[in-house]
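Structure representation.

___
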Amino acid sequence: MKNTSLIRTLLILLTLPFILSSCKKTDEKKAVVDFKDRVQIEKDKKSIETQPIRIAIAAVVSPKETAIYYDEMMKYVSKKFGKPIELIQKKTYQEVNDMLERKELDLAFVCSGPYVDGHKKFGMELLVAPMLYGKPFYQAYFIVHKSSPINNIQGLWGKRFAFTDPNSNTGKLVPTYVLSKINKTPETYFKEHIFTYSHDNSIKAVSKGLVDGASVDGLIWDYYNDRNPDFVKDTKIIYRSPLYGIPPVVVHPKTPIEIKNKLKNIFLSMHEDPEGKKILSEIRIEIFIVPKDSSYDSIREMQEWLKKKK
């Protein structure tokens, strides 16, 4: 009995260090993991607070000479939001759409056609839209040189024509749709067609005789005619399209609601602030409004028509 008791005592003494060591390691491991997690949470929180608001404006969407005023607008938004703004400019609408889909942007100024495409593909969401010349709509202008004998669309047959962007509503979709209504395509109707990637460039191309005609954003032509008439004085309008929903300001559908609401309120109240109103007046924006998705249905109808014609 004594031997048995002695053996048990020895076994307990031999295994006790291992038991204590195991418990100590477990406790230490938990403490280390918890500490790291807390540090990472603090870092993530700080990163979110200092991360800039990323805003994109496609080069096609506004007259080049308004760049300084859009820069002022971004500074205004930055001040009102309380965060720095990272302004991103891309050549094409598709680049902006792709970045927004990947959530690499918080806000984007896009064309009406790319909005329809983005809304269908990943739920691109309307935030606000500008009101210009008393209406939240715009149209395409077909223009030619002022000295050209061409006075209608029929006169453009066999001529050189300029589009802006492959995804532009007024700069590509509308003229393609107009031609389809007479059973023609750009490839069969024009001698040559090019992409300028800017309504400014299309107006210049017509003015300098590089092309015979072009389809441009009517708001941009009107802006120049109002503010800098020399820029469009060598062009004339031969066709005005029906009205379409104006190019909007959009966000990703999963943008946090607090960010969306804050940005929306800044734009919607901009005209009520003297500083904001001055910036808007320079680019002929009267106010920002909340647009309706249905305003873009006519663009969807053109797209569907062209799909059926293929």
